[in-house]
């Protein structure tokens, strides 16, 4: 892959799993950052379907995370690897061997830590974030869920089911996961799960 020019995506045919494995935000084979691919690796050059594929995935990211997210997650100058099911459906997108996102059969992304880092680095606070303090930090880093009682702040646009980054007040990324409550509910509730954490930074 090192011989390919920047900005190209790689398609990896994965024949080891069914094509219709769902990525539902909980731990699954699609959410694993180190899933094996059983087929050949193809380098997509500028004019073929690989680049058109990554462009359509940027559009999905813009729709899901907001304007600009597609180029943040999959920059044109980046070297993005696309792992596909045996039917050709994108399953995971990686950069430098780290999982940025998984792509579910519902047409939505689930974040990996690498993807969460990119969003947090690029977007102004508190976009795409749920903020917690010292009480929650060690638990969330270890992959435990974040609870409403300990949420200090959240992106006001967050709705249940949204993919979010859980960060410490000082800005460190602690985890990525799925919001279980709206931002308003996180602020109002003294109990209940705010974010179902999929991957903690210390796992």
Describe this structure in words.
Helix content is about 20%, strand content about 30%. The chain has about 200 residues and is α+β, with helices and mostly antiparallel strands. It folds into 2 domains: about 10-115, Roll (Nuclear Transport Factor 2, Chain: A), CATH 3.10.450.90; about 125-200, Roll (Archaeosine Trna-guanine Transglycosylase, Chain: A, domain 4), CATH 2.30.130. The strands form 2 sheets. It has a 6-stranded mixed beta sheet with strand order 2-1-3-4-5-6. Strands 8-12-11-10-7-9 form a 6-stranded mixed beta sheet. It is globular. Residues about 1-10 and about 10-50 have low confidence and may be disordered.
Q: What's the quick description here?
A:
The protein is built from five helices and twelve strands.
Proportion of β residues? Answer: 25-35%
Oligomeric organization of the protein chains: single chain
Radius of gyration: 17 Å
Q: Strand count, sense and closure of the main sheet?
A: 6 strands, mixed
CATH second-level architecture of the largest domain = Roll
For the largest beta sheet, what order do the strands appear in spatially? 2-1-3-4-5-6
**Stretches where pLDDT falls below 50 for ≥5 residues?**
1-9, 11-52
Question: What is the end-to-end distance?
Answer: 28 Å
Give the % helix: 10-25%
For this structure, what is the CATH class of the largest domain? Alpha Beta
> Which class of secondary structure composition applies to the elements?
alpha+beta
Overall mean pLDDT score? 82
Number of strands: 12
What is the fourth-level CATH superfamily of the largest domain?
Answer: ArcTGT, C2 domain
Which fold name fills CATH's third level, the topology of the largest domain? Nuclear Transport Factor 2, Chain: A
How many helices? The count is 5
**What general outline do the C-alpha atoms trace?**
globular
Q: What is the H/E order? A: EEHHEEEEHEHEEEEHE
| Integer count of domains | 2
